[in-house]
Amino acid sequence: MTTSPTRRTIAVVHAGLGQPSSTRLLADRLAEATERELEALGHPAAVEMIELRDHAHAVVDAMLTGFPTGDLARAIETVTRADGLIAVSPLFTTTYSGLFKSFVDILDKDALTGMPVLLGATGGTPRHSLALEYSMRPLFTYLRADVVTTSVFAATDDWAQAGGPAHDGGTSLPERIERAGRSLAALVASRDERGTPDDPFAATPSFLDLLGGD
């Protein structure tokens, strides 16, 4: 008897403010790369895109009341029930945007525990690329998410050179996106359907069972 491949859901949260925005573009590219890699690993994938600009007022209300409602509540449920998360923010004053942080702040503190997460950021200059490591990664590590090693920063010049070699002699933006997508897909594919690691002790009898107690 053959088992059907397990469908995986990837939630994509981005805090781009413009329409269109380079932040949304990077989020799309990362989602596409992850979806392709999951398909190659035998897992059909569904991508759920969440544009935080559409929920900005509701995010502020939730911070004041402590209770997200309506479309925002549904967006949060999409994130917390996903098998993996792609989180992308523009950088302002060398760190993630206030809207991005506010959304993270209204999540339950345990909501992302064990969640495979891929981080991305956009900015005007490559000088800000380290913000991913000193700002965004610690934020999700604090929330006990399983953040993939590869993160992707896209500067303005990266989009102009997207089809060719990187300006600094390193890997190009498309190459970095593909590598990041592979990393997230591999991590998501290794998880059970709830997005958490398989428990190696799940079948172990309890102490009470061993003693024959009630």
TrEMBL record:
Residues 10-158 form the NADPH-dependent FMN reductase-like domain. It holds the Pfam family FMN_red. Keywords: Flavoprotein, FMN, Oxidoreductase. It comes from the Bacteria. The keyword Flavoprotein applies. NCBIfam families: LLM_duo_CE1759. Transmembrane segments: none annotated. The lineage of its organism: Bacteria, Bacillati, Actinomycetota, Actinomycetes, Micrococcales. The keyword Oxidoreductase applies. GO terms for molecular function: oxidoreductase activity. InterPro entries: CE1759_FMN_reduct (IPR023932), Flavoprotein-like_sf (IPR029039), FMN_Rdtase-like_dom (IPR005025), NAD(P)H-dep_FMN_reductase (IPR051814). Signal peptide: none annotated. This is FMN reductase.
